[in-house]
Amino acid sequence: MATVLPSFLTKEYLQNILQKYENDKTVQIQEFHCSPAVAAGNNYASMLLRVKIKYTKSGYNLEKSIIVKSAVADSEMAKSIEEYGIYQREISMYDKILPKFHKLIESIDDNEKLFSPVIHVDSKTSTLIFEDLKKTGFTIADRLNGVDQNHVNLVIQKIAKFHACSMVLMESSSEEFREFAKAPFDDSGSSLQFFDGMTEACIEKMKTWSGYEKYIEKIEKMKKWLPRETIKIYEDVSKQPIKVLSHGDLWINNMMFKYNEDGSPNDLLDFQISYVGAAVNDLMYFTLTSTNDEIKLNKLSDVFLQYYENLVECLTKLKYKGKLPTLYELHCQYYEKRYFEYNKDPKIDVLNFTIEPAVPPGNNYASLLLRLHIKCTKTNRRNNIFMKRIIVKTILSDPNTAKTISDTNVYVKELLMYDTILPKCQKLLHSVDDSDSFFYPAIHVDFKNKTIIFNDLTTEGYRIADRIAGLDQNHIELVINKIAKFHACSMVLMEQSNDFYPKLTDSIIKDDEIGHTFFKKMFKSCIEEIREWVQYEKYLIKLEKIYELLLKQGEETYMTSKFTSNVILHGDLWTSNIMFTYDNSNTVPENAILIDYQIVCYGPPVLDIIQFFMTSTKLKYNKFLDVLKLYHSELLKSLKKMKYQSIRPTLFNLYCQYNEKRFFEIFNIIVLYPIMVNIQTKDADISNVIGENENASKFRSQMFKNQKVSDKLKELLPIWDSLGLLDPMH
Fold this sequence. Notes:
This protein is an alpha+beta fold. The protein folds into four domains: 11-75; 85-117 and 136-184 and 234-325, no CATH class; 340-395, no CATH class; 399-723, Alpha-Beta Complex (Aminoglycoside 3'-phosphotransferase, Chain: A, domain 2), CATH 3.90.1200. Helices cover 45% and strands 16% of the residues. The protein contains 22 helices and 20 strands. The chain has a five-stranded antiparallel β-sheet, sandwiched between helices. Strands 11-12-13-15-14 form a five-stranded antiparallel β-sheet, covered by helices on one side. Strands 6-8-9 form a three-stranded antiparallel β-sheet, with helices on one face. Strand 4 (118-122) and strand 5 (127-131) form a beta hairpin. Helix 3 (86-107) packs across helix 4, helix 4 runs antiparallel to helix 7 and helix 16 (606-616) crosses helix 19 (663-676). The radius of gyration is 32 Å and the shape is elongated. Residues 128-317, 452-641 form the CHK kinase-like domain.
């Protein structure tokens, strides 16, 4: 079928444009031929033509290939598209905005092009004319397979610079961006037809798949509110911490790559859907539509980090006067745009929400914990407004620290616990009519982004006790009951099946990066503090020898004991990982919930009891056996109730195991306890616990100057020495 040309695309029209572009009135077009510039399926909103021109200039015969981009030939479709100012947006981008971006980039001696140079902008016919980049070696990547990391690196670098330029320009002249303030679609007319048509086509395809019935039902419900919820992604721009001019259509077909031995530079094309909005929208759009599965599923945080570093670098070079965005704000923006689908009621609308840290500094080191206050309403019942609070737990925003922590598998372990193992425990408790659970289920578990969402338990009266004061007998009894129940469930589950055993075998203490950057540094800081104490020289000498054996002896404590079966250890059982409810007096605890299952692993059950007793209770050291006896009693009750068939541990077994694993006391008091009772919360984050710089060294040092820490060490060092615990185990 012959290509239908726009009526204005004549020999005279092209000749006038070429004369102006080459600044030469001698240009005379001899002939031109048009063909589609892209294959079917590669562009929908515009007509793209490749025009090959033969012309003379100053007596010479020349040829040139250009790309003409204009409104679609179908007048009805063009009218529907122009409802949202699609063509005018792109005309304004090339005519007004992009030239200013180019000047900004040139002003910092950056020669990299952000966009394809335009030959002519014709606002009257909504037409743009470009050089044909294909002639210079540029090509569009494979839209079906998705791009790899090398391509992603280039795209992220470009879009970060694009966003940085927009932030600088908006800072000086926001009026120029007024026409980009509205979302490029709405929830009526042709937009609604598009949403409905695509959703219906998806549903029809899924009906041919076996086992997807429950998803079809949910998507059919989603169809009613999808347009409205999508538009919310573009709304409330004034409240966004990182507000930019978004490209709006950042996918493979709107980029061109040039491949050579030196790398793969690219150009960003197609600015029809540009709008002022959240920076994260372009990142989500690009990674979800255009990257390969490895990046899409496992590298999203890396993409965010790369974007952030490029954005801040460019803003700094451009001397941006506003507040530089933080990586934390970028992640918060992502959760704002991503995590509303957790609620299973499609009739709920989210009106707005705020984000704040979920815990004060010093209460959590290994994860980012956010509290979201969400204002909701039922659809069509705007007078029925209610509030919802949730907790979002995800990886740390600092990429280097997050990687160090992630290498220990703590994030994956907790995801496995809340997704699989804890629900099995819950089912087991229900089977024996025990409604008193030791944990609270998650709302949503997201393996892709290493994120878990919970109800905010503070709304139900739960709170964390004072980590510095320590817990009294009433609190202790509740915790021991819960940890015994958890251990019992793990023993019964292990008896039934060991499918998840391989994923929980490694302990947190081993000869790896976290061992050297965290555990050994804390131990070293302790030695340096004791070096200043009078008459503690003999302990100092012994601790220096232990320092060399710390990781080996610590790892051995987790090895299977000959005295009792292993359990799934909580692994981080201290005050900040336990929440309590209280009676009317607000002093006597009534219930307890164990939280934070990042450091779970198989190991001797006495390790959880040692850790809890040593770090979180007010009891004297000689009261440990009383707590161990209470634990044994509670454990046997649960095992009996659950009809555990294997040999049940005796109190003597546990006592022997305690003596076998007592080095764990030293590890907890020297490495962990100073962090748990730290009172200097200003710099209380994981980077200062494991860092190499002077600030980190000072932070570790001040923790050991805490009176509670020094008193505890001075009490226990003589006891440990008398028991031979300060001598090498081998």
